[in-house]
Design a protein that fits this description.
Helix 1 (about 1-25) packs parallel to helix 4 (about 70-95). The chain contains 7 helices and no strands. By secondary structure, it is an all-alpha fold. It has helices at about 1-25, 30, 45-65, 70-95, 95-120, 125-130, 130-150. It has a single domain (about 1-150), classed as Up-down Bundle (Ferritin). The model has no long low-confidence stretch (mean pLDDT about 95). The termini are far apart.
Amino acid sequence: MKRLGALILFLLLVVGGGLAIGILTAPGEWYAGLAKPPFNPPGFVFAPVWTVLYVLIAIAGWRSFEQDRSSAPMKLWWAQLALNFLWSPVFFAAHRIGLAFLVIVALLAAILAFVATCWRKDRPAALLFAPYAAWVGFAAALNGAIWQLNRQ
């Protein structure tokens, strides 16, 4: 029962936090007015993709937490979550596309480091991050392209 409670807390933190940040920093007129590359997905794609990814992130974090709360994977998990939650305010609220690109590159590095540190000890946690790594890699390319197209 205690393990289930911890999982629920991880889900609430990650899914709830991600959705709250998404609502508070929702793309508005500023984002709509930016030039975007042809590979920019339609807006309706982002919320369901991130919701699924947040569930996977929470489960991977919970697994690492259950194994060792002070481990390197757990520290990397917290780092990636902080960077993940930082990106939207930097990009959408502060309109700092270049700085957001640096944040998302650091986020991708933290994700890949988490995968690498979990690979031998907890492969399911590492694999739970695979779709996340792919999406953030795509998002980094998108962020970089938007930055290049809108430089003044």
